[in-house]
# Entry
Amino acid sequence: MWGLNFTVIRYGLDEYTPFTFATWRFLLAALPVLFVKKPAISWGTLAGIGGFMFGGQFVFLFFAMQAGLPPGLTSVLVQLQGPLTVVLAALFLGEQATRGQWLGLAVAAVGVVLISRSVEGTANIVAIGLALLSALTWATGNLFFRTARGVSMFAVTAWACVLPPLPLALVALLYEGPDHLLAPILAPSWKGWFALFYTVVPVMWLGYLIWGTLLRTYPAAKVGPISLLVPCTALVFAALLVGEPITGPRLLGVAVVLGGVALGLFASTRRLR
# Structure
């Protein structure tokens, strides 16, 4: 589900501007609050999850793809959220990172450099920076997400989506205009609504429900490596559906990034043993 999501987002951005797409995605994702009770966590935690893990992550991701970064490469760069979470936890929560975790981040950074050298034009360099900001905001949201224990993950997802739509809608209204903001209603298209449906129902509601269940059932460091399947499947879907080329230096960069992320994640697993 999450692997195909990046290509679906590419289709959605062909129909909607980034802030409009984000506004409607989170507005629809928040609909379950009409019948789902607020989870027993603070509004500050929900704001952190909604603002960073959801709002920040996907706004930067949308703009990265709008600026020209292909879906497959975007999925690879966003997976840097794993090692970045380790760094942020060490800086702000006093947790100690192992040498393997720091080495994994360094290796992944080398991969990012290789990828940046494989793309052409200033716009794509900016797009890489936006994708890295997406990974950073996701990693920041993870610190808030870790505190949401003993509650329904579906409820957390829905209630965390309550906060982003209003500021996103205001920005969309000011910078993109009312016609763009109301495009899903005034100029509906099957492709646009399919993108909204897919990014909400399978990706947000079902995806985070499954992810949360895995995190509750197994140690996080054992579940984490499963996330490496996301960019792998995303690259396959992007190649098949939009013809994204993954060859030469770009393929090497992708392999180095995934290797660095894997190194950091498996270093975390060894630390728990």
User: Anything to note?
Assistant: The chain has a mean pLDDT of 86.
